[in-house]
């Protein structure tokens, strides 16, 4: 990344969540390494792959990842020492231990060592001078069977921000105070005022700066994004943005149709894999196991209904008392063939939601 990007995040650490802001562990279910690995490999990660890299971690992501993976080695990498300091403090205040915080450039081969079973690059590639080189650098650190999640800005989702950013550059407005002054003086029906009123980001300095003052941003339509993915030699596995179709190619076709009407499903979120084995089939001998992040939800002292935040592009089923009692049976591995037809159907829905892990018959059990 460029020095200007580093300076930007030193000045505006992002995101600027309150330090006391907490996350329910059940909402981190899609950040659990065992769950993600089993989704695309049909087994639990082997010992060498039990490492997570958060590339461009910012000031918050290490906390939910640490919450989801308390016994896993996690490296939180960022250019900004100020962002890392805030992320470290957030973890400390919420009792999250075991995260290694490292300042450095993800494109520098000397920054990282070894391979990782899960790499998260959420909102990072579109801030690189050479996104293809950055993605290849991360791909080189992915273990066989490893998973990488990426998010990049969609051109049509970011249309308003990019128009405003261009105008601010022409006006030579380069700081938050200048932007806020312009917003205050803008007409109620202006593009700037409409954006300001509709966006939750602009209420904080870091959010406004990230949206409108970032020195290095690019956006993607779906074809250039998939070309970028192809250059990495990683396999696209699953889109996880809003209402995404399960089949990658079908989702690409759907997005192309949307883009013809200058629309988008939102920013693109995609899971990539390196020589993954594929999901375990729904066979009688398959073993089903509870996602560790839901252990507290199905415990004997949990009451009422719970709905976990959507992380894979679709709403999750509500976990009422009956659903929680059903899920509690999978604290230990359960053979799929031992379930009734209706139970197996329900278990399949929970596997799709990643609340249950489906393991191959020959996969080692915990």
Automatic annotation (TrEMBL):
| Cited InterPro entries | Methyltransf_12 (IPR013217), SAM-dependent_MTases_sf (IPR029063)
Recorded hits in CDD domains, A to Z, give:
AdoMet_MTases (cd02440)
GO biological-process terms attached to the record: methylation
> Which terms does the record give in the GO molecular function aspect?
methyltransferase activity
For the keyword Transferase, the answer is: yes
Record has Transferase as a keyword: yes
- Keywords on record: Methyltransferase, Transferase
> Which intervals hold domain Methyltransferase type?
56-147
**Which Pfam families does its entry note?**
Methyltransf_12
Note the superkingdom of the native organism.
Bacteria
Protein name as annotated: SAM-dependent methyltransferase
């Amino acid at each position: 990344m460029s020095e200007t990007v580093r300076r930007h995040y030193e000045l505006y650490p992002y995101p600027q969540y309150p330090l006391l802001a907490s996350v329910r562990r059940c909402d981190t279910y899609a950040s659990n390494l065992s769950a993600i690995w089993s989704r695309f490999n049909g087994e639990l990660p082997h010992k060498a792959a039990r490492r997570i890299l958060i590339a461009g971690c910012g000031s918050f992501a290490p906390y939910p990842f640490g919450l989801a993976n308390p016994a896993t080695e996690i490296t939180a990498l960022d250019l900004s020492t100020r962002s890392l300091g805030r992320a470290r403090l957030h973890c400390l205040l919420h009792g999250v231990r075991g995260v290694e915080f490292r300042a450095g450039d993800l494109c520098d081969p000397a920054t990282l060592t070894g391979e990782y079973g899960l790499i998260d690059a959420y909102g990072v590639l579109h801030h690189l001078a050479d996104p293809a080189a950055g993605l290849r650098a991360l791909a080189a650190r992915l273990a066989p069977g490893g998973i990488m999640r990426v998010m990049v800005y969609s051109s049509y989702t970011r249309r308003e921000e990019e128009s405003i950013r261009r105008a601010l550059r022409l006006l030579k407005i380069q700081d938050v105070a200048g932007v806020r002054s312009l917003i205050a003086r803008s007409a109620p029906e202006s593009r700037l005022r409409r954006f300001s009123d509709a966006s939750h980001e602009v209420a904080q300095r870091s959010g406004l700066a990230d949206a409108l003052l970032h020195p290095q941003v690019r956006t993607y339509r779906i074809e250039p994004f998939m070309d970028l993915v192809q250059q990495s030699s990683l396999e696209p596995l699953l889109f996880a943005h809003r209402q995404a179709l399960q089949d990658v190619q079908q989702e690409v076709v759907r997005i192309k149709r949307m883009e013809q009407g200058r629309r988008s499903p939102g920013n693109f979120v995609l899971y990539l894999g390196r020589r993954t084995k594929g999901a375990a089939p729904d066979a009688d001998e398959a073993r089903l196991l509870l996602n560790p992040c839901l252990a507290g939800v199905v415990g004997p002292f949990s009451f009422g209904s719970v709905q976990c935040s959507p992380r894979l592009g679709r709403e999750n089923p509500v976990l009422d008392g009956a659903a929680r009692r059903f899920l509690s049976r999978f604290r230990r591995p359960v053979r799929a063939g031992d379930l009734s037809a209706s139970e197996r159907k329900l278990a399949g829905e929970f596997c799709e939601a990643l609340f249950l892990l489906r393991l191959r018959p020959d996969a080692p059990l915990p």
